[in-house]
Every structure is written in C-alpha cells, then in structure tokens.
Predict the 3D structure of the following.
Amino acid sequence: MSIKRETKFFYRNAVWFVLSIVLFLLIDAGAFAQGDLLIFPKRIVFEGRKRVAQIILSNTGKDSATYNISFIQYRMNELGEFEAITEPDSGQQFATPFLRVFPRRVNLAPGESQTVKVQKFNTDKMVDGEYRSHLYFRAVKNNKPLASENKIESSNTLSVKLEAVYGISIATIIRKGPSNTVTSISGAEYSNDEYSNHFLSFNIDREGNMSTYGDIKINYISNDNKKYEVGNVKGVAVYTPGNVRKVKMQLQKPEGVNFSGGKLIVVYTENEKKKVIAKAELEL
C-alpha cells in the first residue's frame, strides 16, 4: 500500500471514529433517534430573551436521505399519547405563528450532519403563557427510476414493494411571563402479575399556565433501611392544557428483594437536573 493510499485509509477511518464518538455523546446527552435520523436536542424551549435555537440532524444510515421540515400540532391525552389536531383545545396555544425554521428541506449523505435553525419572532403580539407546536421531520420517499428495478420474468407474477416512510417530531415551546405551575404526584398503587412482574402506577397532576417535563426515579427503601433504585424513565411531560398524566412503570426487582414492607419513593425532577418537581411515598 502506497503512502498516499495509507493516508487516505487512515483519514477515512479517523473521520468515522470521530463521528461515532460525536453520535454517542449526542445520544447520551439527550438526542432523539428514529430510523437513520438522529436529532439533537430532543426538544426546544424558548424562554426569556432566547430567540434562536439550533438543531443538529445526523444521518446514521448507509444511504443518502432527504427530509422535509414543517410544523404539526398535537394534543396529549392522559396516557401520554399524541393526537394530531388542527385547532387548539381550550387553554392550548400554538407556537407556529411565532416561529420560522430554515432550511425547510435537508439532504444528508451517509454520515453527514447539518444544522437547522428555529427562530422566534413577533413576540410583541403574544400574551403571557405557553405556546407549543411540534417540529416535524418527514422522510422523503426515494423514488428510483423504473429502469433500476429488476425485471419480472413472468407476466403472470404480481410484484408489490412496500417502503416505510416515517417522521419524527419534537416539541417546540415558547414561554412568556412567569410560571405559576404546581405539580404533584397522587394515586400511587403497587401491583404485580402472574408472571412475577412488579408495577407502580401513579398520576402526575399539573395545575397552572405552563407544562411540566422531567425524569422519574423510583427508589425502594427496605425495612432495614437499605435503598434500591427500582425504576427510572426520562422525558415525561404533562403538556398544557392537560392536567394529569397517568403513569405505570415496571419495577426492576433487586435480587433478594420481594417488596414486602418498606416503602416506594417516586421522585420527579427537572429533565437532566436535580431540582425536584414533585415527590410521593407509598408504604408497602
């Protein structure tokens, strides 16, 4: 192998190594991935004087891909499921009239990344409160020329090819004015099933003018005062105008622990921070 070819080989592998490290850090820091598209960060919040946000799109696949970028509106039900809507519910405000995004279309080669900017504007027309829309990244179907498809040998054969076209959306929120939101946890209930699975069900209750978003951790304190982490989930939201989110988490039972006696402690903290939003205990 010549020195020139060795240099190219080293450079190519070094680039892929650096890219893999970057993607790992993005995922660990709170990116959102589906299919071959990686998005960082996984949500946008405009507060105070913040007027521009940047999103990094990365193509982790082996083929080039194109994505159209737009806004979509959702309502969230009590189970955390989203339903597309065109008109806001009572107490809900869309952020779309106050946001613009560029570019609106992104072409990514394998391993390529690109920055998308979201800008807030016309905020002088906003009243205090929270405005929410969802930035939507939709994959564009790759239509190959007919000549590139394999020919069908028999005229009696029907060939059907299905291609999945998917999209990813991330919450984009504008907050204006002070928050008066109060969050609590209620209705904690422990259960198990015939397969020896253990669960804790509870409600996240929200009141006020802003949504709540954070991480949930469940600890078990045994009768002899030993502490075990038995549940952990990140990125749990209660979006306005919803007032309750029903949660059911499967508990990871430590070896030798049977959840007999002691207590379970649910802690809801700001996402990736230590500030406690709400806390509840259940005696077993």
